[in-house]
Amino acid sequence: MTLNLNWGILLEESATGDGPYWTLLATGLQWTLATALTGWVIALLVGSIVGVLRTLPYRPLALLGDIYVEVFRNIPLLVQLFFWFFVWPEVVPQEIGRWMKQDMPYPEFITAALGLGWFTAARVAEQVKSGILSLPRGQKNAALALGFSLPQTYRLVILPQAFRVVIPPLTSEFMNIFKNSAAALAIGLTELTFQMKQMVEYSNEVIVSIAAVTTIYMTLAFAVNRGMAWLEKKARVPGMIGGGR
Amino acid sequence: MNTDASPMIRFVNVNKWYGRDHHVLKNINLEVRQGEVVVVCGPSGSGKSTLIRTINQLEPINNGEIWVDGIRANDPRTNINKLREEVGFVFQHFNLYPHLSVLDNITLAPIQVKKIPKDLAERTAMELLERVGLANKKDAYPANLSGGQQQRVAIARGLAMNPQVMLFDEPTSALDPEMIGEVLAVMKQLAESGMTMMVVTHEMGFAREVADRVVFLDQGVILEDAKPEQFFTDPQTDRAKQFLRQILAPMHQ
Ligand SMILES: Nc1ncnc2c1ncn2[C@@H]1O[C@H](COP(=O)(O)OP(=O)(O)OP(=O)(O)O)[C@@H](O)[C@H]1O
Ligand SMILES: [Mg+2]
Q: What is the residue range of A190's domain?
């Protein structure tokens, strides 16, 4: 079998009329980056808050955090995206629903970024919680005994240690969010995988299209991995758990 | 503020349960006057840690009253964070913040809680580090210190808040024997400076030499509260006699 790969296709004008094929993929990359990064910011913020809630000595708040995680972690991402895109606008007050369907800018992108953010937040919350619980109990008591309020105790003593502990598991969640962003093609976001399908359809160069996109995804994963490794090294404390490896 | 008439720490009919049936502190009445050093001892599980932790409300109590420097600690209207600023606490396992340098460990609470300017807080911290003999370790991280050094930093951290009282929960029992002396020396010096101290310890040499009173706790009850020479030479209860035999000559029971 001989593979006749036409790499030059990337430079050829696409049948969609949007310029050469590589610009199709470039657009896809932009949306993938925008969706994954926005989603990640949301996931970190929401996930940290939910993770902290679950460790608080107030039952109702802890329960609220637990429910969030169970709901968002156990429903398939694709179903969640469909829900936010098709069902949510029908559930909210009519005015808002109409705005979402007609006037909201970039509806696919906003829905995908938020949906991916909520979903990933549940996974981040799980990591943050176990990071906090992995710390010796004495740390919290030592802070309280010196007169720190509970919020100060979290901000100054618990979270700086917990985040150091969870950098490695968060790295894989960060890598996952790029891969998971491909699910957004189901609601019509022209992200990388969507564009790959386009290119396959119009150019018939299946292998080249897939190979090009695979390379891009792997480059992204590699960049995230190196970035987080750098962060872990920078945050390392002499002899501390999680920093000593 | 405190006068000689009102004690620095006062327990009035304090009871505490863990869960429903574990009565861990039973009708505790105890006073510690300003400048006094009180050693608390007793068998494992007798409630010593629980007792000392109720003073700054790291452990809540079920009934009774605890007063610290004229303020009722277990009153829901008391600003407990404010009260804790006045009460230093030294733990068995040091509990230094591993992500901060020695200097930052000491200055964190003064800067964040008391809002003391950074340079002033650092100057005070350096004075305290001199006092505990660790000025040269100010930039080290806790994990790179010996246990004895960590505990001396923990004492300096407590003192940096300029507290009225210092509480110690078995401050030397996690240490290798050769490091116990250096920590006890710092505590003795602190006692001589007039600090009010309550110390849970089994270091009977320290109790004999430094304490004004020894309190013996057994199964949540204060069985003895006496001057050291009286406690060691003429204990009133069989439980205390047995305890002293075990602790002073563990090989010959
Ligand atoms: N958080 C808790 N929940 C339930 N029981 C507890 C708790 N903390 C301590 N206890 C129990 O209460 C009793 C008193 O414990 P405490 O730690 O005060 O004793 P101690 O005199 O300090 O003992 P040790 O010498 O071993 O430190 C023990 O039986 C212990 O098992
Ligand atoms: Mg104890």
A: 21-235
